[in-house]
Amino acid sequence: MADEINSYGEYPGSFRLWLVRHGATAWNAEGRFCGTSDIPLSPQGEQQARWLSQQLPPTNIAAIYSSDLLRARQTAAQIAPQLPLQSTALWRELAFGRWEGLTYAEITALPENDLRFFSDALHFSPPGGESLTALDQRVQQAFTLLVAATHAHKSPCDVVLVSHGGPLRVLLCQLLHVPLPYQWQFQLAPGSLSALDLSPIPGAELPVASLALFNVQPPFAAVKEN
Q1: I want to staple 129 with a disulfide (CB 3.0 to 4.6 A). Which of 97, 114, 165, 170 is the partner?
Q2: What is the Cα 8 distance to its own chain's centre?
Q3: Considering the entire predicted model, what is its pTM?
Q4: Which long-range contacts (C-beta less than 8 Å, at least 24 apart) are formed by 112-121?
Q5: Which among 4, 10, 22, 177 is annotated as catalytic?
């Protein structure tokens, strides 16, 4: 797949950023909020990770980055085992605090629960968790570091980022200039593959981004979203 749609050109500093949502977990299948809980891949998630490795030939990848959570690292290890994995907590999923491990129905059934996060995630957070605004700031920092590191590679190049639904949706909003409240409209399934072609512009804070691929999924049963 990588060879079929390489079109980011020869602009200095340009690169393709492959966006991978980690493979499925048991909690994904049950509709539970995973957040920063360190849940491993399920057997289906492991199958999805193997499928992803077949879509991204290792010879085309200059670097691979991931969240430091186990489900992301397990997925990344399948994709590019020949490269040192650069993982960081900055790419973790949004922290859902005391809601982690619960379904939406279980959350809404809690007594004296503040559910404003679901209507205004920019300003409210789950109890003991993180707001969308905080995640946005964290993703900005992580992406700045990724771009700086990528400039050390020969241009153009392919870079892989394995993360979670929340950070990847927020990154798409940042790079495609979509208002953050609309991030939920980017549906990224577990084990899915997307791609952005990025070209830096002198003096600009963010590179020019073109969405080259979105939410391509393996040809076997999907899991529930949360």
Answers
A1: 97
A2: 21
A3: 0.91
A4: 121/181
A5: 22
How confident is the model over 19-57, as pLDDT tens digits? 999 999 999 999 999 999 999 999 999 999 999 999 998
Could you give phi then psi for residue 198, rounded to 5 degrees? -120, 130
What does the alpha-carbon distance between residue 97 and residue 37 come to, in Å, rounded to a whole number?
9
CATH architecture of the domain formed by 15-216: 3-Layer(aba) Sandwich (3.40)
| pLDDT at 149 exceeding the cut of 90 | no
* AA identity, residue 172: L
Our answer to whether residue 93 is catalytic in this structure is yes
DSSP 113-144: ---GGGT-TTT---TTS--HHHHHHHHHHHHH
Tens of pLDDT along 94-135? 999 999 999 999 999 998 788 999 999 999 999 999 999 999
Query: Which residue, chain included where needed, has tokens 């492991």?
Result: 46
CA 185 to chain centre: 15
Task: Give the residue from 83, 69, 66, 53 showing the smallest Cα distance to 193.
Answer: 53
10 flagged as catalytic: no
Locate tokens 């949502």: which residue?
21
Radius of gyration of the chain (CA): 17
